[in-house]
Amino acid sequence: MHKTSTTHIAFASFIGTAIEFYDFYIYAMASALIIGQVFFPASDAAAQSLNAFLTFGIAFIARPFGAILFGHFGDKVGRKVTLAASLLVMGASTLLIGLLPGYDTIGYLAPVLLCALRFGQGVGLGGEWGGAALLATEHAPKGKRGWFGMFPQLGPSVGFLLATLSFLGLSLLLTETEFKAWGWRLPFIASALLVGVGLYVRFKLAETPAFAQALARRSTHVIPVQALFKA
User: Fold this and answer.
1) What percent of the chain shows pLDDT beyond 90?
2) Whether 23 contacts 154, CB under 8 Å
């Protein structure tokens, strides 16, 4: 097993949370600006806005499920693969939101699919944050776990900044008609490029020493969550 540099560890743990929170926040901004108009009936503007914010809240319900799901597999198959999977789930959900036809095209199927994809975003983020912190601290040199555990926590603020800048740029470059017609989709589609970078960085990592040692001792659990409640 090759040794991963400390710089790579720090960047890999940071980049995933930054990308996933970028995805999370662009949906928040789109909810306030355009989601209701695109994916819900035009008969009531207030209902459109309310429904848009309800879809935003779905991800908060999904996050605990993501944490349990990816936590389970993180203890079974490893941190590296599981974190790549959480990033892929978030990225795929975000890209598909950007490509999803609106209510005028596919009717009530549009909000149904939107809710499913927003749930997918929440699942992906639920597995990312804790997993990234675990990746950083398990790879960290002795005496520096707190320092390396800080890098995943930088991701949310950077993700928020990127999301804000993306919509600011669109507001400066596009007309209101262009933004409503297709411009709002661009930050979601651009997420695919960011996820590709994140996956490349993640797959270049070695498995964490703690999990590698657990595999060598054959001390992983068939159902890891059982060990948590028995502890």
Assistant:
1) 59
2) no
d(CA 6, CA 113): 41
Q: Is the pLDDT score of 219 beyond 70?
A: no
- Host domain of residue 104: 6-230
For the chain, the domain total comes to 1
- Contact indicator for 202, 84 with CB cutoff of 8 Å: yes
Name residues whose C-beta falls within 8 Å of residue 230's C-beta, 6 or more positions apart in sequence: none
On whether residue 89 sits in a domain, the answer given is yes
Torsion sign (Cα): 113, 119, 122, 124 = negative
Rounded to an integer, the average pLDDT of 122-140 is: 86
- Tokens 């054959």, located at residue: 218
Residue partners of 49: CB distance under 8 A and separation at least 6? 36
Closest CA to 94 of 27, 34, 160, 168: 27
What does the pLDDT look like over 78-95, one tens digit per residue?
888 898 999 999 999 999
For the cut 80, the answer to whether the pLDDT of residue 108 exceeds it is yes
DSSP assignment, residue 174? S
pLDDT at 188: 98
Sign of the alpha-carbon dihedral angle for 107, 109, 112, 113: negative
| Domain presence at residue 1 | no
- For 188, the 3-state DSSP assignment is helix
Rounded CA-CA distance 62/123 in Å is 5
With contact defined as beta carbons under 8 Å apart, do 203 and 41 qualify?
A: no
Q: What is the CATH number of the domain that holds 13?
A: 1.20.1250.20
